Amino acid sequence: MSKLVVHATTLSLRAGSAWKGVIILGPAGIGKSDLALRAVEKGLVLISDDHTCLWSSGGHIYAAAAEADPSAFRAMTRLYLVVLAQSEGPRAPDGEITPILGHALPTVRLNPREASAVPRLITRLRSS
After folding, report:
1. Which residues are registered as beta bridge partners of 56?
2. Minimal CA–CA distance to 62: which of 73, 72, 50, 47?
3. Domain total for the chain?
4. Could you say which of 20, 50, 53, 127 would form a disulfide bridge with 66 (CB–CB 3.0 to 4.6 Å)?
C-alpha cells in the first residue's frame, strides 16, 4: 500500500450512516485552517490540519493525520471531495476532478475567506 503525505487540511461530515471526508488543498497562508475552524463550528470534524496522509484501499482514498493530532475527533476518513482553496481566479467547472493515487475525486474551488465557503463546502460534500 503506497502512502502520500500532502500539505492539506482534512475534515469529515456525518451524512446518514456514513462519514464523508473532504481534503482542502492550497498554498500556505491561503486560509485552509480558518475554513476548517468555521466548518467545525457547523458540524464537521477535524481529521488533520496541515499534513495529511493519504492511501488507497478497496478502491477508495482514505485520509488521516500524518502525525498524531490530539485535536482530531476522528482518526481517519474516506475522501469524497477535494477543495482547491484559492483567493481569486475562475471557479471550477462542473465535473472538475483531482487525481489522487490513481483515483479521480470530485473537486470544487473555493475562496476560504468568503462567507459562503462553508455552506458551499457542506452542500457539495453532502451531494457527493
Report:
1. 61
2. 47
3. 1
4. 53
Q: Which among 111, 113, 108, 112 is positioned nearest to 126, based on CA atoms? A: 108
Which grid cell is 60? 477508495
pLDDT score, position 116: 94
| Contact assessment for residue 63 and residue 10, using Cβ atoms and an 8 Å cutoff | yes
Joined together, the cell numbers standing for residue 111 give 475562496
* Residue 34 main-chain phi, psi, to 5 deg: -65, -45
Q: What is the DSSP string of 87-122?
A: SSSPPPPTT-EEEETTEEEEEEEE-TTSTTHHHHHH
pTM score, whole prediction: 0.92
CATH of the domain at 33: 3.40.50.300
